[in-house]
């Protein structure tokens, strides 16, 4: 493999060459790359790069975490949800918090792949593949939690409509049933979109692989893709249509999740701002997770030429925009409580600001609203280390927001006699960190087994950049 | 004579050369010429004579069918099979049926789009004569190929070779069946 000459970490307007007039017009692919070198570089990450100790350590650690997670789930199934801190009034504890958090993270992938594709944003090309993988894994983690949360998880299939001998049907007026449809549709459509985009790359892997086992495996997965002109045309049309279908789907999924809350009459849940506020929060946490994964990935795999400062900058701008929407949501929630004059809403809001869970609320404000303000500065948006730290901060902040909404609202509803606190138990935490481990484990597997960047789209980008 | 042969193939270094050659083949009457590229080359499908695909229409139909199934399922369950009076609300409370109808529309439309791409392309098809052609593993890297099939009504051996040779290829080779 011939590595092309490349210039690393060139500061905008730096010493090399004339200063660009508008640094924001910097390339989304650094110059010097051709079809062959792009293909060999990305395929080589999977096919010829030896396994090194950082990956192996992370893999084994997250594998251990995954096993603990599976063990904890088994224990949960044996003992029941009494091992968690949930009770009345707080019947929705960490399981639902985690569910909402994970499904929110799972939004950025499809947003990047679908909406940015329709908007012809070239910078999506080098981050869409792994963002989609992230979406699939995060949505998978999310989908598990409502089932774990069921008192009798072995009856989970009762949520699906089918003609049964009990003559029962799901309650169609319930957002919880909408949720079943929204999440399963989202999982299936994201998987189809991901696989369709992956097909040409699987063919590339088949053609590059040296060992017979790899050739056969990738060959079977590629379904015999051979890149004929008519095939590409149908592929393009189908991919674009899937993007068009996925676009309203992304918005609908978290809106439906928000309606799980908004349709209930609990103070703190019953609010019309919830669907857009949840979608903004979802994109915010999703883009934070994209950065959490992209920054170590580009460093470990030497992908600075493909995932450039421009990508970090754009992702940071999306964080800033969605973070501002979210801050507006926080503000309006509190404003409407007092403006509406409903005594229960006011009481719940005061408890949120000053009660037992107030430290969570104020930490959340610091992490989600104040911290991202550094992104107004370009230098901050292009500083990988700072962005990585900030993305972790936002992930934690968003988890706190979900916790706040799910737990604090129900802990302080109408009657003072019905108030009560929820404190997570050891098992609550084990299951949360277990799911994070499993997510990381799946992602580590993905980066070693499949091309992390869409090779065929990068070839197209090479072509466009050369024109 | 051409029984053992599937096609004559030319290999190119650039997308432009392939598009020009494909256009020349189409102009010479070839309707089944196949062009292979490592990425979707603009204008290539048109050059080999691919007019339009039926995928958008199929996806529309899929979406309508999915939406109809979703809505009718809820209507049948809530109005006929399992009527339930909840606070005097109408059994056929259509606004509450919209989310599931929407999800079903997207689901069936997306499945249709996915299957239409695969089946329209004749995939999965793991074995194909072109895979044995020299250099064809580069079709997924940086090379471009044009195939004139022997079963094309316009095919004649000498003419095909002449046409391919005239298009400034890197090489011209035969592809066994």
What do these coordinates show?
The complex is a heterodimer of chains A (467) and B (177). Chain A is mainly α. Chain A has one domain (47-161, 168-466): Formate dehydrogenase/DMSO reductase fold (Up-down Bundle). Chain A has 16 helices and no strands. Chain A has helices at residues 35-47, 53-79, 94-105, 107-118, 128-149, 175-208, 212-222, 229-262, 274-300, 309-340, 343-354, 358-370, 378-381, 384-411, 426-449, 455-466. Chain A is globular and about 70 Å long. The two termini of chain A are 25 Å apart. With 177 residues, chain B is α+β, with helices and mostly antiparallel strands. Chain B has two domains: 5-52 and 128-176; 55-120, no CATH class. Chain B is built from five helices and four strands, in the order βαβαααβαβ. Chain B has helices at residues 15-27, 44-47, 55-81, 98-120, 157-165; strands at residues 5-12, 34-36, 144-149, 171-176. Chain B has a four-stranded antiparallel sheet, with helices on one face. In chain B, helix 3 packs antiparallel against helix 4 (98-120). Chain B is rod-shaped, with a radius of gyration of 25 Å. The model of chain B has no long low-confidence stretch (mean pLDDT 86). The chains are: A mainly alpha (467), B alpha+beta (177). At the A-B interface, helix 1, helix 6, helix 8 and helix 16 of A face strand 2, helix 2, helix 3 and helix 4 of B.
């Amino acid at each position: 493999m011939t590595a092309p000459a490349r210039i690393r970490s060139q500061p905008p307007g730096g010493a090399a060459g004339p200063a660009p007039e508008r640094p924001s017009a910097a390339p989304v692919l650094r110059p010097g790359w051709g079809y062959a070198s792009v293909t060999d570089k990305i395929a080589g990450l999977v096919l010829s790069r030896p396994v090194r100790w950082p990956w192996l350590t992370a893999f084994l650690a997250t594998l251990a975490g995954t096993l603990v997670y599976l063990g904890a789930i088994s224990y949960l199934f044996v003992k029941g949800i009494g091992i968690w801190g949930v009770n009345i009034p707080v019947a929705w504890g960490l399981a639902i918090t985690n569910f909402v958090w994970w499904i929110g993270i799972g939004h950025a992938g499809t947003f990047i792949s679908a909406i940015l594709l329709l908007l012809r944003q070239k910078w999506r090309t080098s981050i869409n593949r792994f963002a989609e993988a992230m979406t699939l894994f995060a949505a998978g983690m999310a989908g598990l939690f409502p089932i774990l949360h069921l008192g009798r998880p072995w009856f989970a299939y009762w949520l699906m409509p089918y003609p049964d001998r009990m003559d029962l049907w799901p309650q169609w007026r319930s957002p919880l049933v909408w949720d079943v449809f929204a999440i399963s549709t989202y999982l299936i459509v994201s998987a189809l979109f991901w696989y369709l985009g992956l097909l040409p790359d699987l063919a590339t892997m088949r053609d590059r692989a040296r060992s017979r086992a790899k050739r056969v495996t990738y060959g079977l997965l590629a379904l015999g893709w051979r890149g004929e002109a008519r095939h590409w045309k149908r592929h393009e049309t189908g991919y674009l249509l899937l993007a068009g279908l996925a676009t309203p789907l992304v918005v609908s999924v978290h809106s439906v999740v928000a309606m799980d809350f908004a349709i209930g009459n609990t103070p703190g849940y019953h609010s019309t701002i919830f669907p857009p506020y949840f979608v903004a929060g979802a994109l915010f946490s999703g883009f934070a997770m994209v950065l959490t994964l992209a920054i170590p990935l580009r460093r470990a795999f030497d992908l600075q030429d493909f995932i450039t400062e421009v990508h970090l900058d754009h992702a940071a701008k999306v964080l800033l925009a969605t973070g501002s929407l979210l801050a507006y949501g926080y503000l309006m929630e509190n404003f409407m409580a007092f403006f509406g004059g409903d005594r229960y809403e006011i009481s719940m809001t005061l408890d949120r600001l000053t009660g037992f869970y107030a430290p969570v609320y104020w930490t959340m404000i610091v992490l989600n609203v104040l911290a991202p303000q550094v992104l107004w500065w370009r230098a901050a948006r292009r500083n990988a280390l700072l962005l990585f730290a900030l993305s972790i901060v936002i992930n934690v902040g968003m988890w706190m927001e979900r916790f706040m909404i799910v737990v604090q609202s129900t802990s302080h509803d109408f009657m003072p006699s019905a108030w009560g606190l929820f404190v997570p138990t050891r098992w609550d935490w084990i299951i949360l960190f277990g799911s994070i481990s499993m997510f990381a484990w799946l992602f580590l597997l993905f980066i070693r087994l499949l091309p992390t960047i869409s090779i065929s789209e990068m070839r197209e980008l090479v072509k466009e950049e050369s024109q | 004579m051409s029984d053992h042969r599937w096609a004559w193939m030319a290999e190119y270094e650039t997308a432009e050369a392939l598009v020009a050659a494909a256009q020349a083949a189409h102009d010479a009457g070839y309707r089944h010429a196949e062009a292979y590229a490592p990425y979707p080359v603009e204008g290539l499908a048109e050059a080999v004579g691919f007019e339009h695909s039926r995928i958008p229409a199929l996806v529309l139909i899929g979406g309508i069918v999915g939406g109809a199934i979703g809505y009718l399922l809820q209507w049948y369950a809530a109005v006929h099979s399992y009527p339930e009076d909840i606070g005097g609300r109408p059994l056929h409370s259509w606004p509450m049926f919209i989310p599931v109808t929407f999800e079903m529309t997207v689901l069936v439309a997306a499945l249709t789009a996915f299957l239409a791409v695969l089946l329209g392309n004749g995939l999965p098809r793991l074995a194909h004569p072109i895979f044995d052609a020299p250099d064809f593993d580069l079709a997924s890297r940086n090379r471009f190929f044009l195939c004139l099939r022997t079963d094309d009504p316009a095919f004649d051996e000498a003419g095909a070779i002449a046409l391919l040779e005239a298009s400034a290829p890197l090489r011209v080779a035969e592809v066994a069946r």
